[in-house]
Amino acid sequence: MKTQVRKKYISKIGIGIALALGASIVQVGSVQAAPTPTRGGTLSVAITDYMVGFCPNDTNSNSALMPVKQIGETLFEQRADGLVVPFLAESASSNADFTSWRIKTRTGIKFSNGEKWDADALMINMKAARGQLSGGGSAASDSATSKVNPAASLFHGAKYGGLAPVAWANAKAVTKVDDVTVQFDLKRPNAGFKELLYGSGRTFMRAPAMFLPENNPGTKLADINYLCSKQMIGTGPFKMAIDGMSADKGTVTVTKNETYWRKDAASAKLPYLDKIVFTTTKDAGTRVNGLKAKTTDMAWFTGNSESQAILRAQKIKSVKVNLSSADFYPQLWFVENKAPFSTLSCRQAVSAGLDRATFAAKRTGGLLKPLTSIMGDGSPGYSSKNFITYDATKAKAYLAECIKALGTTELAFSAPFDTAPEAQKNGQEMAAQLAKIGIKMTVLAVETSSIITNVFASSATTGYQAVWFQVLEGPGMQFNSLFMASTSNGYYDLSADLYGSLNTLNISRHTDKDFDTLWFAARAQKPGKAQNDAYKLAIERWQSQSHSTSILGVAFAVATTDKIAGACGLKLLSGGTARCVSNGGISLAGVSKSK
Amino acid sequence: MKKLINILTRLSRVALILMGATFLVSILVRQLPGDVALLINPVASAAERDAIRHELGLDRNYFSAYLMWLSQILRGDFGIFIFGGKVFPVIKSAIPATLQLIFYTQILALVIAIPLGVLSAFKQGTRFDKLTSTSLFSLASFPNFGIGLILAVVVGANLGIVPPSGYIRITEDLSQHFKLMLLPVLTLAVGPIATYTRLLRAEVIATLREDYVLLAKSKGISDKRILFRHVLRPSSTTLMTSAALSMGNLIGGALIIEIIFVIPGLGTQLAKAIGTREFFAIQSYVAIIAVFFLIFNSVVDSLINAVDPRTRNRRA
After folding, report:
1. Which regions of chain B carry the CATH code 1.10.3720.10?
2. What is the ipTM of this complex?
């Protein structure tokens, strides 16, 4: 009897274990099987800035890069681990002293208009970027030159202050080797040339049709109406029609590129979405409201001025906030070719007068941390040596020295901040802190796109005395190099390269030859500890001269509602995944939206 | 003949005011700091800068430059953006959104204010009258951007009753269009509702004391008929004038409200143009706003004439 009961129990336990095992297998199976992404649908994305355009010289602000990033792609991509790997390029190789690089283009890729991505396409992109599609830099000379699209050159088209040609000033020659290979010969060695080609995600490869003369309806300033300022044609997962950007450049609509070259993990076609609508929404609170009400699917935020909105979005259960590393470093750049910041002690007074810890607490609610160098500790050039931290007593001493040198009664200056309310509050906080030291700072309200133009105006004409501007970033140094180097030591052969006065990327307009020497010596070295040490020396020199000062390491954020999946998981052909959130937001190739 | 002269006189007055306003703006815009030629081409030589200034008419004196701009406007050319593109397509796309916002606001404000004003006057001194006055003036004392932000957060984001921001054309999706316009219209309407109610209340109280109203009452005509047929019409002159004048204020208010609710109207464009120092665009936007302001006022003048024969006689 007892045996029968035991057997009964054992069999019951056995059934129980079997059921539990079965259930667990089913459960494991369901966990392992990736949910099939929903195909179709329209994604509504709110960004901060207005578009400028799509020409190589159109310097879109960070959030305005996000629409461009969905249409155009870059030769290289930055991985989540910071490594720059081939993307539209298949490979990159250099000679021993890094003065010659060969880039092979990936095969089997077409632009959304059907044109082939190959060495010819790369060549025309490089010509445009180097200003060589221009007739010479003036409206009159461009107008007189046939078969040239001035919009593709530096100073004409939708925007007149361009970065691209200066970035390529170190290129002595760019030549086509074969159908898939282009060779770059450099004047000075550059071990990190791939990173320069990545260009902080800004060196998009455009379809040759964007530069053709038949798309150039005229060159009169009064009739600026070029194709490349209105429509982007790239190899990316989405494409846009010529009327895809609204007249006020506040809305960009893109649709699925049916011939996109990348596939998902199951080798199925990408992208999943049918359409994306990007809308400029200046107010961060409005973006959060849209996410909460689910009328906006995705929204961009910059930690620099919109930390409170990020913190608010993080508290909403149905919203996921993808935050980048805080490795973007806005600076207060002191413009040194005019008073008051031509005087070192004036720069030092402001640097010592900024209470970074209080700023971080008040303006970011602790989301971002104060810096102890012009760059964060994730940067290869990080060094806190010579960085002037907050010290009211020292600031007042520097101020006294500054006023004496200036021969005035006060240190007064103005600096532009974006018109967005939170950006203005950042400026007001800095002004309030400096006022305690006795420094008068006037906060100007200017649209970022306009600030960019003025910042990169010629050295003689930039109207600002100081500017709060974010271009420095980690974990590499190539992009930073463009904005920190002075041209005063003749490093760029300007008369031969371009139009004669292009030191426009040198935001602080410094003439610090010692810094340049240290900087370029570092850039020529093979990546590694020795190179990092060399960069540190250059940064220490920069900090000793207070060419700029920083406050916070900034993160960017892209927040999504719970309807959105696949924001950051798409694998790269070169292995790994791309950095999830960069200054250009998120790639939407692998994003889907549930119904 | 007299009518024609009247119309011509009015039109010429409108044209003169318009020219005065735009001329003043053209002078003010030219005072903004920054050399447009250098903004267009930062590395231009002195000769090239002169050429740019000449092409844009910046080398002319105030009168000559203004006449050049005026002749362009009359030919339908609203100028260019310094940073690329023509101004007219932006104006064309922005006007409908702003006009819709203003018209919907005006309609909502009048629909609420007229019955409230008349009833408050009729029930003068009662709890209803006091409650209406206090509530409306408490609301009107809030800045409208504050009301907008509260409505967007509470009604839009937290309660999810209507979308907190955005704009869609009426032709694209009628129901979504009105859902999106509800909060900005409510926000803008709060101020006018309070003002109109108060004005109408005062006028109605005065009219109720007129002899003909007492006569109507003695004849046994119902209160409703007296109020809405015999009192409202003569009492609405001030309300209509105020409504016309408030169109200008509404355009100003729309500037902030459009930004909060992401409506791509003239206000948003004007704010953007100021931020980017788009001199020609600012001038053209202001001209458009001035034109609308004058049109609204002229229309209301004519309406007042039609509604209240006494004003017609006075002007005649």
Report:
1. 87-312
2. 0.74
